[in-house]
Design a protein that fits this description.
The complex is a heterodimer of chains A (170) and B (269). With 170 residues, chain A is mostly helical. Helices cover 70% and strands 0% of the residues of chain A.
Protein backbone atom coordinates (compact mmCIF):
# COMPACT_ATOMS: atom_id res chain seq x y z
CA UNK A 1 0.00 0.00 0.00
CA UNK A 2 2.83 2.38 0.85
CA UNK A 3 4.27 1.96 -2.64
CA UNK A 4 0.91 2.64 -4.26
CA UNK A 5 0.36 5.77 -2.17
CA UNK A 6 3.85 7.06 -2.94
CA UNK A 7 3.37 6.47 -6.67
CA UNK A 8 0.03 8.27 -6.62
CA UNK A 9 1.52 11.11 -4.59
CA UNK A 10 4.36 11.52 -7.08
CA UNK A 11 2.16 11.50 -10.16
CA UNK A 12 -0.44 13.85 -8.67
CA UNK A 13 2.32 16.17 -7.50
CA UNK A 14 3.80 16.47 -10.98
CA UNK A 15 0.43 17.19 -12.55
CA UNK A 16 -0.23 19.86 -9.93
CA UNK A 17 3.26 21.26 -10.23
CA UNK A 18 2.94 21.88 -13.94
CA UNK A 19 -0.45 23.54 -13.58
CA UNK A 20 -1.72 24.81 -10.24
CA UNK A 21 1.55 25.23 -8.37
CA UNK A 22 2.80 27.53 -11.13
CA UNK A 23 1.02 30.19 -9.12
CA UNK A 24 3.40 29.65 -6.20
CA UNK A 25 6.10 31.53 -8.11
CA UNK A 26 7.59 34.42 -6.18
CA UNK A 27 9.72 36.69 -8.41
CA UNK A 28 9.76 33.87 -10.94
CA UNK A 29 11.11 31.31 -8.47
CA UNK A 30 9.00 28.26 -7.86
CA UNK A 31 9.61 25.82 -5.00
CA UNK A 32 10.23 22.22 -5.99
CA UNK A 33 7.48 20.07 -4.51
CA UNK A 34 9.01 16.87 -5.86
CA UNK A 35 12.09 17.57 -3.72
CA UNK A 36 9.85 17.98 -0.66
CA UNK A 37 8.43 14.50 -1.16
CA UNK A 38 11.85 13.02 -1.90
CA UNK A 39 13.42 14.63 1.18
CA UNK A 40 10.53 13.56 3.41
CA UNK A 41 10.83 9.92 2.37
CA UNK A 42 14.62 9.98 2.35
CA UNK A 43 14.59 11.16 5.97
CA UNK A 44 11.83 8.79 7.08
CA UNK A 45 12.68 5.66 5.11
CA UNK A 46 16.23 5.96 3.90
CA UNK A 47 18.21 6.32 0.70
CA UNK A 48 16.41 3.58 -1.23
CA UNK A 49 13.11 5.40 -1.00
CA UNK A 50 14.76 8.74 -1.71
CA UNK A 51 16.55 7.49 -4.77
CA UNK A 52 13.63 5.64 -6.31
CA UNK A 53 11.06 8.35 -5.73
CA UNK A 54 13.55 10.78 -7.24
CA UNK A 55 14.07 8.55 -10.22
CA UNK A 56 10.33 8.17 -10.83
CA UNK A 57 9.49 11.83 -10.40
CA UNK A 58 12.45 12.90 -12.52
CA UNK A 59 11.56 10.55 -15.34
CA UNK A 60 7.99 11.81 -15.37
CA UNK A 61 9.14 15.43 -15.62
CA UNK A 62 11.66 14.53 -18.32
CA UNK A 63 9.07 12.72 -20.39
CA UNK A 64 6.46 15.39 -20.02
CA UNK A 65 8.53 18.56 -20.33
CA UNK A 66 12.15 17.79 -21.06
CA UNK A 67 13.91 17.69 -24.40
CA UNK A 68 16.64 15.39 -23.16
CA UNK A 69 15.47 12.42 -21.16
CA UNK A 70 17.31 11.75 -17.92
CA UNK A 71 18.63 15.08 -16.65
CA UNK A 72 15.90 15.51 -14.06
CA UNK A 73 15.73 11.79 -13.33
CA UNK A 74 19.41 11.54 -12.51
CA UNK A 75 19.54 14.78 -10.54
CA UNK A 76 16.55 13.84 -8.40
CA UNK A 77 17.87 10.32 -7.86
CA UNK A 78 21.28 11.56 -6.69
CA UNK A 79 19.54 14.06 -4.42
CA UNK A 80 17.32 11.40 -2.86
CA UNK A 81 20.25 9.05 -2.38
CA UNK A 82 22.50 11.61 -0.72
CA UNK A 83 19.78 12.96 1.57
CA UNK A 84 18.89 9.37 2.47
CA UNK A 85 22.31 8.95 4.10
CA UNK A 86 21.02 11.03 6.98
CA UNK A 87 18.11 8.67 7.61
CA UNK A 88 19.58 6.92 10.68
CA UNK A 89 20.96 10.00 12.34
CA UNK A 90 18.04 12.45 12.53
CA UNK A 91 14.89 12.87 14.57
CA UNK A 92 12.00 12.01 12.32
CA UNK A 93 9.27 13.80 14.24
CA UNK A 94 10.88 17.23 14.17
CA UNK A 95 10.57 19.70 11.34
CA UNK A 96 14.15 20.95 11.63
CA UNK A 97 15.77 18.12 9.62
CA UNK A 98 13.17 18.70 6.90
CA UNK A 99 14.05 22.41 6.86
CA UNK A 100 17.79 21.82 6.66
CA UNK A 101 17.72 18.92 4.25
CA UNK A 102 15.27 20.61 1.89
CA UNK A 103 17.76 23.43 1.53
CA UNK A 104 20.64 21.02 1.03
CA UNK A 105 18.58 18.94 -1.40
CA UNK A 106 17.87 21.96 -3.60
CA UNK A 107 21.58 22.75 -3.66
CA UNK A 108 22.47 19.18 -4.63
CA UNK A 109 19.70 18.95 -7.22
CA UNK A 110 20.42 22.28 -8.90
CA UNK A 111 24.17 21.72 -9.12
CA UNK A 112 23.71 18.25 -10.50
CA UNK A 113 21.14 19.67 -12.92
CA UNK A 114 23.44 22.50 -14.03
CA UNK A 115 26.36 20.14 -14.64
CA UNK A 116 24.27 17.61 -16.56
CA UNK A 117 22.49 20.23 -18.66
CA UNK A 118 25.82 21.91 -19.42
CA UNK A 119 27.27 18.73 -20.83
CA UNK A 120 24.09 17.79 -22.70
CA UNK A 121 23.95 21.18 -24.43
CA UNK A 122 20.76 22.12 -22.62
CA UNK A 123 22.26 24.81 -20.45
CA UNK A 124 19.44 27.17 -19.47
CA UNK A 125 21.42 30.43 -19.33
CA UNK A 126 23.75 31.97 -21.88
CA UNK A 127 27.38 32.10 -20.81
CA UNK A 128 28.02 30.64 -17.38
CA UNK A 129 26.79 33.32 -14.94
CA UNK A 130 27.13 31.00 -11.96
CA UNK A 131 26.95 33.64 -9.22
CA UNK A 132 23.96 35.21 -10.88
CA UNK A 133 22.15 31.87 -11.10
CA UNK A 134 23.03 31.09 -7.51
CA UNK A 135 21.76 34.39 -6.14
CA UNK A 136 18.73 34.78 -8.37
CA UNK A 137 17.31 31.27 -8.44
CA UNK A 138 19.12 28.56 -6.51
CA UNK A 139 19.45 30.18 -3.06
CA UNK A 140 15.95 31.73 -3.04
CA UNK A 141 14.52 28.41 -4.16
CA UNK A 142 16.45 26.61 -1.42
CA UNK A 143 15.04 28.90 1.22
CA UNK A 144 11.52 28.79 -0.19
CA UNK A 145 11.71 25.02 -0.39
CA UNK A 146 13.03 24.76 3.17
CA UNK A 147 10.14 26.77 4.58
CA UNK A 148 7.38 25.06 2.60
CA UNK A 149 9.10 21.69 2.85
CA UNK A 150 9.09 21.70 6.65
CA UNK A 151 5.34 22.34 6.56
CA UNK A 152 4.71 19.67 3.96
CA UNK A 153 6.94 17.25 5.87
CA UNK A 154 4.55 17.17 8.83
CA UNK A 155 1.69 16.07 6.58
CA UNK A 156 3.72 13.45 4.77
CA UNK A 157 4.95 12.19 8.15
CA UNK A 158 1.36 11.87 9.41
CA UNK A 159 0.31 10.17 6.19
CA UNK A 160 3.15 7.70 6.47
CA UNK A 161 2.27 6.90 10.09
CA UNK A 162 -1.33 6.08 9.15
CA UNK A 163 -2.20 2.45 9.69
CA UNK A 164 -3.52 1.78 6.21
CA UNK A 165 -0.05 2.39 4.77
CA UNK A 166 1.13 -0.95 6.13
CA UNK A 167 -1.72 -2.98 4.66
CA UNK A 168 -0.90 -5.39 1.91
CA UNK A 169 -3.26 -5.06 -0.99
CA UNK A 170 -2.04 -7.90 -3.15
CA UNK B 1 -118.05 43.46 12.97
CA UNK B 2 -115.71 45.36 15.18
CA UNK B 3 -113.54 42.36 15.80
CA UNK B 4 -113.73 41.09 12.22
CA UNK B 5 -112.44 44.30 10.61
CA UNK B 6 -109.50 44.87 12.94
CA UNK B 7 -106.92 43.34 10.64
CA UNK B 8 -108.36 45.02 7.58
CA UNK B 9 -108.19 48.44 9.24
CA UNK B 10 -104.57 48.08 10.25
CA UNK B 11 -103.66 46.87 6.74
CA UNK B 12 -105.37 49.87 5.24
CA UNK B 13 -103.70 52.30 7.65
CA UNK B 14 -100.26 50.84 6.98
CA UNK B 15 -100.96 50.92 3.29
CA UNK B 16 -101.85 54.59 3.45
CA UNK B 17 -98.74 55.34 5.50
CA UNK B 18 -96.63 53.50 2.99
CA UNK B 19 -98.22 55.36 0.12
CA UNK B 20 -97.44 58.62 1.89
CA UNK B 21 -93.85 57.46 2.45
CA UNK B 22 -93.55 56.43 -1.16
CA UNK B 23 -94.92 59.69 -2.37
CA UNK B 24 -92.56 61.57 -0.03
CA UNK B 25 -89.47 59.73 -1.12
CA UNK B 26 -90.28 59.10 -4.77
CA UNK B 27 -88.37 62.24 -5.84
CA UNK B 28 -85.05 60.72 -4.72
CA UNK B 29 -83.25 61.95 -1.62
CA UNK B 30 -80.09 63.92 -1.15
CA UNK B 31 -80.17 64.10 2.61
CA UNK B 32 -81.38 61.45 5.02
CA UNK B 33 -84.24 62.30 7.25
CA UNK B 34 -83.87 62.80 10.97
CA UNK B 35 -84.57 59.25 12.06
CA UNK B 36 -82.59 57.84 9.28
CA UNK B 37 -79.76 60.16 10.06
CA UNK B 38 -79.84 59.13 13.70
CA UNK B 39 -79.75 55.50 12.75
CA UNK B 40 -76.99 56.04 10.29
CA UNK B 41 -74.98 58.03 12.83
CA UNK B 42 -75.35 55.29 15.38
CA UNK B 43 -74.57 52.42 13.08
CA UNK B 44 -71.75 53.81 11.03
CA UNK B 45 -69.11 53.86 13.84
CA UNK B 46 -70.00 50.35 14.81
CA UNK B 47 -69.78 49.31 11.25
CA UNK B 48 -66.49 51.06 10.99
CA UNK B 49 -65.11 49.25 14.03
CA UNK B 50 -66.15 45.96 12.59
CA UNK B 51 -65.00 46.84 9.16
CA UNK B 52 -61.57 48.12 10.23
CA UNK B 53 -61.07 45.27 12.66
CA UNK B 54 -61.98 42.98 9.82
CA UNK B 55 -59.41 44.68 7.70
CA UNK B 56 -56.93 44.46 10.55
CA UNK B 57 -57.49 40.75 10.96
CA UNK B 58 -57.41 40.28 7.27
CA UNK B 59 -54.11 42.14 6.99
CA UNK B 60 -52.63 40.44 10.01
CA UNK B 61 -53.53 37.03 8.81
CA UNK B 62 -52.36 37.90 5.34
CA UNK B 63 -48.98 39.03 6.60
CA UNK B 64 -48.75 35.98 8.85
CA UNK B 65 -49.65 33.93 5.86
CA UNK B 66 -47.03 35.80 3.82
CA UNK B 67 -44.50 35.30 6.60
CA UNK B 68 -44.78 31.60 6.10
CA UNK B 69 -43.96 32.10 2.43
CA UNK B 70 -41.30 34.70 3.15
CA UNK B 71 -38.67 32.18 4.06
CA UNK B 72 -39.12 30.12 0.94
CA UNK B 73 -39.31 33.27 -1.13
CA UNK B 74 -36.11 34.53 0.42
CA UNK B 75 -34.41 31.26 -0.38
CA UNK B 76 -35.72 31.44 -3.90
CA UNK B 77 -34.43 34.96 -4.37
CA UNK B 78 -31.05 34.14 -2.82
CA UNK B 79 -30.74 31.23 -5.19
CA UNK B 80 -31.64 33.45 -8.05
CA UNK B 81 -29.06 36.05 -7.03
CA UNK B 82 -26.42 33.36 -6.79
CA UNK B 83 -27.38 32.02 -10.18
CA UNK B 84 -27.27 35.48 -11.69
CA UNK B 85 -23.91 36.18 -10.09
CA UNK B 86 -22.56 32.95 -11.50
CA UNK B 87 -24.00 33.75 -14.90
CA UNK B 88 -22.48 37.20 -14.67
CA UNK B 89 -19.07 35.75 -13.89
CA UNK B 90 -19.38 33.37 -16.81
CA UNK B 91 -20.44 36.17 -19.10
CA UNK B 92 -17.50 38.34 -18.05
CA UNK B 93 -15.17 35.41 -18.68
CA UNK B 94 -16.79 34.78 -22.02
CA UNK B 95 -16.48 38.43 -22.94
CA UNK B 96 -12.79 38.39 -22.10
CA UNK B 97 -12.29 35.15 -23.99
CA UNK B 98 -14.24 36.63 -26.84
CA UNK B 99 -11.87 39.59 -26.96
CA UNK B 100 -8.84 37.34 -27.00
CA UNK B 101 -10.30 35.12 -29.69
CA UNK B 102 -11.42 38.10 -31.75
CA UNK B 103 -7.88 39.43 -31.85
CA UNK B 104 -6.80 36.00 -33.09
CA UNK B 105 -9.56 36.01 -35.65
CA UNK B 106 -8.52 39.41 -36.97
CA UNK B 107 -5.02 38.13 -37.51
CA UNK B 108 -6.41 34.98 -39.09
CA UNK B 109 -8.58 36.92 -41.51
CA UNK B 110 -5.79 39.22 -42.61
CA UNK B 111 -3.25 36.41 -42.92
CA UNK B 112 -4.97 33.78 -45.02
CA UNK B 113 -1.70 32.22 -46.18
CA UNK B 114 -1.54 30.11 -43.02
CA UNK B 115 -3.43 27.15 -41.62
CA UNK B 116 -4.44 27.60 -37.99
CA UNK B 117 -4.94 24.98 -35.30
CA UNK B 118 -6.47 26.26 -32.07
CA UNK B 119 -5.09 24.79 -28.85
CA UNK B 120 -5.11 25.31 -25.11
CA UNK B 121 -2.04 25.38 -22.91
CA UNK B 122 -2.24 22.49 -20.45
CA UNK B 123 0.93 22.78 -18.39
CA UNK B 124 4.33 24.27 -17.87
CA UNK B 125 7.74 22.84 -17.02
CA UNK B 126 7.84 22.50 -13.21
CA UNK B 127 11.49 23.54 -12.99
CA UNK B 128 12.91 27.02 -12.73
CA UNK B 129 15.19 27.05 -15.78
CA UNK B 130 13.32 26.05 -18.91
CA UNK B 131 10.19 27.49 -20.53
CA UNK B 132 8.51 24.50 -22.08
CA UNK B 133 4.73 24.33 -22.28
CA UNK B 134 2.39 21.52 -23.26
CA UNK B 135 -0.64 22.07 -25.47
CA UNK B 136 -3.60 19.80 -26.09
CA UNK B 137 -3.22 19.28 -29.85
CA UNK B 138 -0.89 16.79 -31.51
CA UNK B 139 -0.19 14.95 -34.73
CA UNK B 140 -3.84 13.83 -34.93
CA UNK B 141 -4.78 17.48 -35.38
CA UNK B 142 -1.99 18.18 -37.86
CA UNK B 143 0.59 19.74 -35.56
CA UNK B 144 4.16 19.09 -36.69
CA UNK B 145 7.60 19.80 -35.24
CA UNK B 146 8.89 23.35 -35.87
CA UNK B 147 5.44 24.85 -36.34
CA UNK B 148 5.09 28.33 -34.94
CA UNK B 149 2.76 29.00 -32.01
CA UNK B 150 1.11 32.41 -31.70
CA UNK B 151 -1.42 34.28 -29.61
CA UNK B 152 -3.63 37.23 -30.57
CA UNK B 153 -2.52 39.69 -33.28
CA UNK B 154 0.17 37.24 -34.36
CA UNK B 155 2.47 37.52 -31.37
CA UNK B 156 5.00 34.70 -31.45
CA UNK B 157 4.98 32.40 -28.42
CA UNK B 158 7.48 29.80 -29.57
CA UNK B 159 7.77 26.72 -31.67
CA UNK B 160 6.71 23.12 -31.39
CA UNK B 161 9.61 20.84 -30.43
CA UNK B 162 7.90 17.51 -29.89
CA UNK B 163 4.58 16.12 -31.06
CA UNK B 164 2.57 13.32 -29.47
CA UNK B 165 -0.64 11.97 -30.94
CA UNK B 166 -2.80 14.44 -29.06
CA UNK B 167 -0.41 16.70 -27.20
CA UNK B 168 2.68 18.67 -28.12
CA UNK B 169 5.50 20.41 -26.33
CA UNK B 170 6.29 23.95 -27.30
CA UNK B 171 9.46 25.82 -26.46
CA UNK B 172 8.82 29.47 -25.71
CA UNK B 173 11.02 32.14 -27.27
CA UNK B 174 12.16 33.06 -23.76
CA UNK B 175 13.79 29.63 -23.33
CA UNK B 176 17.56 29.93 -23.58
CA UNK B 177 17.77 26.96 -25.94
CA UNK B 178 15.50 28.50 -28.56
CA UNK B 179 17.05 30.61 -31.31
CA UNK B 180 15.09 32.35 -34.03
CA UNK B 181 16.18 34.42 -36.99
CA UNK B 182 14.71 37.91 -36.76
CA UNK B 183 14.56 41.16 -38.64
CA UNK B 184 14.11 44.74 -37.48
CA UNK B 185 10.87 45.92 -39.04
CA UNK B 186 12.05 49.49 -39.65
CA UNK B 187 15.51 48.93 -41.11
CA UNK B 188 15.38 45.26 -42.23
CA UNK B 189 18.56 44.48 -40.24
CA UNK B 190 18.85 40.82 -39.37
CA UNK B 191 19.86 39.04 -36.20
CA UNK B 192 19.33 35.99 -34.05
CA UNK B 193 17.22 36.02 -30.94
CA UNK B 194 17.28 33.63 -28.00
CA UNK B 195 15.90 33.63 -24.47
CA UNK B 196 17.67 34.12 -21.18
CA UNK B 197 16.82 33.28 -17.62
CA UNK B 198 14.77 36.48 -17.19
CA UNK B 199 11.57 36.79 -19.14
CA UNK B 200 13.21 38.93 -21.84
CA UNK B 201 14.77 37.76 -25.06
CA UNK B 202 18.23 38.75 -26.23
CA UNK B 203 19.10 39.40 -29.86
CA UNK B 204 22.62 39.40 -31.25
CA UNK B 205 23.02 41.91 -34.10
CA UNK B 206 25.88 43.17 -36.23
CA UNK B 207 27.80 46.14 -34.90
CA UNK B 208 26.66 48.30 -37.81
CA UNK B 209 23.02 47.36 -37.42
CA UNK B 210 20.72 50.35 -37.15
CA UNK B 211 18.54 49.61 -34.18
CA UNK B 212 17.20 51.82 -31.42
CA UNK B 213 14.98 51.46 -28.39
CA UNK B 214 11.35 50.95 -29.39
CA UNK B 215 11.96 49.19 -32.70
CA UNK B 216 9.59 46.38 -33.62
CA UNK B 217 11.13 42.95 -34.07
CA UNK B 218 9.56 40.31 -36.34
CA UNK B 219 10.63 36.91 -37.62
CA UNK B 220 12.65 36.85 -40.84
CA UNK B 221 12.28 34.65 -43.90
CA UNK B 222 15.41 32.69 -43.02
CA UNK B 223 13.66 31.07 -40.12
CA UNK B 224 11.89 27.73 -39.92
CA UNK B 225 8.94 29.78 -38.69
CA UNK B 226 6.70 31.81 -41.00
CA UNK B 227 8.03 35.30 -41.62
CA UNK B 228 6.44 38.42 -40.21
CA UNK B 229 5.35 37.11 -36.80
CA UNK B 230 5.70 39.80 -34.16
CA UNK B 231 8.14 39.17 -31.32
CA UNK B 232 8.30 42.39 -29.36
CA UNK B 233 9.79 45.84 -28.85
CA UNK B 234 13.43 46.67 -28.25
CA UNK B 235 14.03 47.53 -24.61
CA UNK B 236 17.71 48.40 -24.67
CA UNK B 237 20.71 48.20 -27.00
CA UNK B 238 24.24 47.54 -25.81
CA UNK B 239 27.25 47.90 -28.08
CA UNK B 240 29.99 45.34 -27.53
CA UNK B 241 32.97 46.67 -29.50
CA UNK B 242 35.31 43.83 -28.60
CA UNK B 243 32.88 41.14 -29.71
CA UNK B 244 31.92 43.19 -32.78
CA UNK B 245 28.26 42.79 -31.99
CA UNK B 246 25.31 44.53 -30.44
CA UNK B 247 23.33 42.87 -27.67
CA UNK B 248 19.70 43.89 -27.90
CA UNK B 249 17.23 43.21 -25.11
CA UNK B 250 13.71 42.70 -26.45
CA UNK B 251 10.55 42.72 -24.39
CA UNK B 252 8.25 40.02 -25.79
CA UNK B 253 4.71 41.07 -26.67
CA UNK B 254 3.35 37.83 -25.21
CA UNK B 255 2.56 37.65 -21.49
CA UNK B 256 4.06 34.25 -20.74
CA UNK B 257 2.58 34.14 -17.25
CA UNK B 258 -0.92 34.19 -18.71
CA UNK B 259 -0.87 31.83 -21.65
CA UNK B 260 -4.27 30.25 -22.31
CA UNK B 261 -5.46 29.95 -25.89
CA UNK B 262 -2.80 29.65 -28.56
CA UNK B 263 -2.82 28.97 -32.30
CA UNK B 264 -0.43 26.64 -34.06
CA UNK B 265 0.42 28.24 -37.40
CA UNK B 266 1.66 26.46 -40.49
CA UNK B 267 1.98 27.66 -44.08
CA UNK B 268 -0.69 26.37 -46.44
CA UNK B 269 0.50 23.66 -48.80
Amino acid sequence: MRIVVICALTVVNIILESTLFQYTRVYGVKPDFAIMIIVAYAIMRGRGYGAFIGLGAGFLIDIMYGRTIGINAMSYMITGYIIGQAHENVFKDSFIPAFVFNFIAVMIFQHSFIILSYFSNNFPVSGFPYVNMLLKVILPQGLYNAILGSIVYRYIYKLDEASFMNKRIY
Amino acid sequence: MKIRNKLLISVVIISILLIVLISLTSQGRTRPGFAEGLLGRLITPVQRVFYTSGEFFKNTFKSLYDLRDLKSENEKLTDEVEQLKEQNRQLIQMALENNRLRSLLEFKNTNTQFDYIGANVTGRDPGNWYDVYTINKGSNDGVAVNDAVIVGYGYLVGKVIEVGTDYSKLMAIIDERSSISIIVNRTRDMGIVSGNSDSDVIAIMELEADIVKGDDIITSEYSTLPKGLYIGKVKSVEKQERKLQKTVVIEPAVDFKRLEEVFVVKPKE
